[in-house]
Write a structure and sequence with these properties.
The chain is built from 13 helices and eight strands. It is α/β, with parallel strands linked by helices.
Length: about 350
């Protein structure tokens, strides 16, 4: 009898320990939920009104790691620059995370995310977080980040997880814990609009190699089942298998378009022909491609589509320079590709600011 009591005590201890460990890491035995119904998605969208904002990184950060690491997390700049956004009537920002910053300092990373959310909320700005990304530099390293290369668009931006996912089979375990930890920690935060699980899967020549992680991140997200919807934006129609999977598995339909009004309208009509869910454009506005505030933002408002342009304040990312038109001497581009403000808050174009404020009612 004594041995039985000892065994039962040990068993209870082990079960409690496992439950605590699962809670901390986001690991559970819960089965992934189903995709939201169209009715639930549309009801969810109604509560937000017209979402309008930008893809945001403070001007003092070259990439996601510099934004989120303890040594370079710049709350003062974030506060000031989100104030610029509030001043022109923007009410939401799309913000990239990175698993390496979380892995380096898990609890500190989450505290900084909370700090960001507090600052954004003070400015009446909601947040759309991005977890993974297939764009720009294939490798990354925590610690001090490189200086910007003069005149080169996003010279220091890093993928997540990038090439390492295809080289280290064990990385997937870390990524699962990361996704589940972040989603579990913020699953009921009403300041978060939605979770953009994976930016532009298949970019950088990966193609369908990204399908494995795409499927996994949807599964992990549905297992946690946050109160916010899950989505992965369609960005290239040629990647049909990936695009179809993204549309079929996203609670709300998100997409990127840097084309002119005719092309953008075609995308809207095409997506609405295959999805009755709310539409949110999570990237647009490239001036040299005739994707402008003057001809796209009114279209998105008329169509009741969430509108997030790339770039708020010109800074270390160098996104005022075009993707395919580098200026290695660092000269000012004749036309800014992205971004709205200079670091001191003066606008690139006052007429754009006036237009944005007229559309937002500011």
């Amino acid at each position: 009898m004594k041995d039985l009591k000892t065994y039962l005590s040990l068993l209870i201890f082990v079960l409690i320990f496992q439950a605590c460990a699962q809670k901390q890491t986001g690991q559970t035995d819960q089965k992934p939920r189903e995709i939201w119904t169209v009715e639930k998605a549309n009801k969810w969208y109604e509560q937000w009104g017209w979402l309008r904002g930008a893809d945001f990184i403070p001007s003092t950060a070259i990439n996601q790691l510099e934004m989120w690491q303890k040594e370079t997390f710049d709350a003062a700049t974030i506060d000031r620059e989100l104030g610029f956004a509030e001043g022109i009537g923007m009410n939401s920002m799309r913000v990239y995370l990175h698993h390496a910053a979380w892995q380096q300092d898990r609890e500190g990373f989450k505290e900084r995310v909370k700090t960001y959310l507090d600052i954004a909320d003070k400015h009446h700005i909601s947040t759309l977080f991005v977890l993974f990304d297939d764009c720009w530099n294939p490798t990354y390293k925590t610690g001090t980040q490189p200086a910007p290369k003069p005149g080169i668009h996003n010279s220091g931006w890093v993928r997540d997880p990038g090439d390492l996912y295809h080289q280290d089979p064990k990385l997937v375990d870390t990524l699962e814990v990361y996704v589940k930890d972040i989603l579990t920690s913020f699953k009921d935060d009403k300041r978060i609009v939605l979770w953009d699980l994976y930016n532009e899967p298949g970019n950088s020549g990966y193609g369908n190699k990204s399908m494995d992680l795409l499927k996994k991140v949807f599964e992990w997200g549905r297992t946690v089942d946050p109160s916010q919807p899950l989505s992965v934006g369609v960005w290239k129609r040629d990647l049909k298998e990936l695009s179809d999977y993204q549309i079929q598995n996203s609670d709300v339909t998100t997409y990127h378009n840097y084309g002119d009004p005719k092309d953008h309208q075609f995308w809207i009509d095409t997506l609405r022909s295959v999805s009755k869910r709310p539409l949110i454009c999570t990237e647009y506005m490239a001036r040299t491609r005739n994707s402008l505030f003057s001809n796209i933002m009114p279209l998105l408002k008329k169509e009741n589509i969430g509108a997030y342009n790339w770039g708020l304040v010109a800074g270390k990312t160098n996104t005022k320079y075009a993707w395919d038109t580098p200026l290695p001497n660092g000269d000012e581009p004749k036309v800014w590709f992205h971004d709205i403000f200079n670091p001191d808050g003066t606008p690139y174009k006052k007429d754009e600011i006036d237009l944005i404020k007229s559309l937002t009612g500011k």
